[in-house]
Design brief:
It holds the Pfam family Glyco_transf_34. There is one protein chain. The protein is 44% helix and 11% strand. With 325 residues, it is α/β, with parallel strands linked by helices. The chain has a six-stranded mixed β-sheet, with helices on both faces. The protein is globular.
Length: 325
C-alpha cells in the first residue's frame, strides 16, 4: 500500500509537537534548577542574618574565671622539611601548595589578639605516610603544655576574629578545662569535633590535655590499615570516624562532644556543583548547619581543588571587617 503525503504529515506534526514540548519542559527545569542552585547559595551565605545561631547567644559572654591555656596548631604538607622534594607529590599536596603562606599570618594575628599560641608543626611531619596523619604527633607532642589544642588544617582561616575559642568551648562543654580530676563526675569532653554530611571531620577539632586524649591519639595513629597513598584522601579522617563509631555509649558521652552546629568553628563554602546539589537536596539540614555564612568564625576549604584562589578571595572579602575590628 502506497503512503500518501497527507498520511505522513499528521504523524510528523505530532512528533514535532512532542519534541517542542519536551524542549520547553527541559528548558523550564533547567531554569528552575539554576535559580535553585544560585538561590541556595545566596540563602546559605546569609544564613546567620536569617536566624541561624552557630554559637548560642547565651554563651557569647565568657565567664571571667574561664581562661584555659590554648594553642592553635597547624602545618602544610607542601614541602618536605630537611628531606629531598618528592618528584611526584600527591594530589592533596599539590592542592595545598602555597596555602600556608597565605593563611599563616591570619592565624597568627588572631592568636596574638586573644593570647593564644600559634604553632607551625611542619617539623612533626612523618613522611613514611601521608602527611595529614602527622597532625596526630603534632598535637601529642604539644598537648602536655596546654589545657586545649585547637588543630586546624592549613586550608582554613579565621573569618570573624571577634569570636574567641573560649566561647566555642563554653558553648559545647561548659567551663571545665583543667586536669582529669575535674571530669570524674561530669562530662567535660576530651575531644570536640564537628560533623558534615559524611560524618565527623578531622580537619578542625579541639583536644583537651588528659590521659584519655593521649591514649586516643596513640590509638588513632596506630590505625595504619586506613592509610591511603597517592590520593586526595589520606585515610586519617576515615580512621577517626571508625574510632568514634566504635566507642561505647558511656565512653562517647564522657569523652567526645560533637558540636550541634558545624558552623561553630568548621564552616564549608557552598559550591554549586552537582555533588553539592545532590547532598543539599537529600541533607538540607547538614548544609544549613555547616555552610559558610557572613559572620562565621572560620572557613574550611575542605574538598576544594583551587584552595589558594578561594583563600585569596576570602581574605580580600574579610579585609574591611578585619581592619575595622
Amino acid at each position: 500500500m502506497t503512503r500518501t503525503l497527507g498520511s505522513v504529515r499528521p504523524k510528523e506534526t505530532s512528533l514535532h509537537r512532542r519534541m517542542w514540548m519536551f524542549f520547553q519542559i527541559a528548558g523550564l527545569l533547567a531554569l528552575l534548577l539554576t535559580v535553585y542552585i544560585y538561590g541556595s547559595a545566596v540563602v546559605l551565605k546569609e544564613a546567620n542574618s536569617l536566624g541561624r545561631d552557630c554559637i548560642p547567644p547565651h554563651v557569647s559572654e565568657i565567664r571571667e574565671n574561664f581562661r584555659p591555656k590554648i594553642a592553635i596548631v597547624s602545618f602544610s604538607d607542601e614541602g618536605r622539611v630537611g628531606l629531598p622534594k618528592l618528584s611526584s607529590p600527591s594530589p592533596r599536596a599539590r592542592g595545598f601548595r602555597g596555602l600556608m603562606g597565605m593563611v599563616k599570618s591570619n592565624k597568627i594575628s588572631y592568636a596574638k589578639m586573644w593570647g593564644y599560641d600559634f604553632i607551625d608543626a611542619r617539623t612533626s611531619i612523618d613522611w613514611s605516610r601521608p602527611a595529614s596523619w602527622s597532625k596526630i604527633p603534632a598535637i601529642r607532642s604539644n598537648l602536655d603544655k596546654y589545657d586545649w589544642i585547637f588543630w586546624n588544617d592549613a586550608d582554613s582561616l579565621v573569618t570573624n576574629p571577634i569570636i574567641r575559642l573560649e566561647s566555642i568551648l563554653q558553648s559545647v562543654i561548659g567551663t571545665t578545662f583543667a586536669g582529669d580530676e575535674d571530669c570524674h563526675h561530669s562530662n567535660c569532653a576530651d575531644l570536640i569535633v564537628t560533623e558534615d554530611v559524611n560524618g565527623v571531620n578531622a580537619g578542625l577539632f579541639f583536644v583537651r590535655r588528659s590521659k584519655w586524649s593521649m591514649e586516643f591519639l596513640d590509638k588513632w595513629w596506630n590505625m595504619s590499615s586506613f592509610i591511603i597513598e597517592g590520593s586526595n584522601k589520606s585515610g586519617d579522617n576515615d580512621a577517626l570516624i571508625h574510632y568514634i563509631n566504635s566507642l561505647s555509649p558511656s565512653e562517647m558521652w564522657n569523652h567526645v562532644s560533637v558540636a550541634p552546629m558545624q558552623c561553630i568553628f568548621n564552616s564549608y563554602p557552598w559550591t554549586p556543583t552537582w555533588k553539592s546539589l545532590h547532598r543539599f537536596i537529600f541533607s538540607p539540614s547538614s548544609y544549613w548547619k555547616g555552610a559558610y555564612s557572613n559572620g562565621d568564625f572560620m572557613v574550611h576549604l575542605a574538598g576544594l581543588d583551587d584552595k589558594t584562589e578561594w583563600a585569596a578571595n576570602i581574605i580580600q572579602e574579610i579585609k574591611p571587617s578585619s581592619s575595622h575590628n
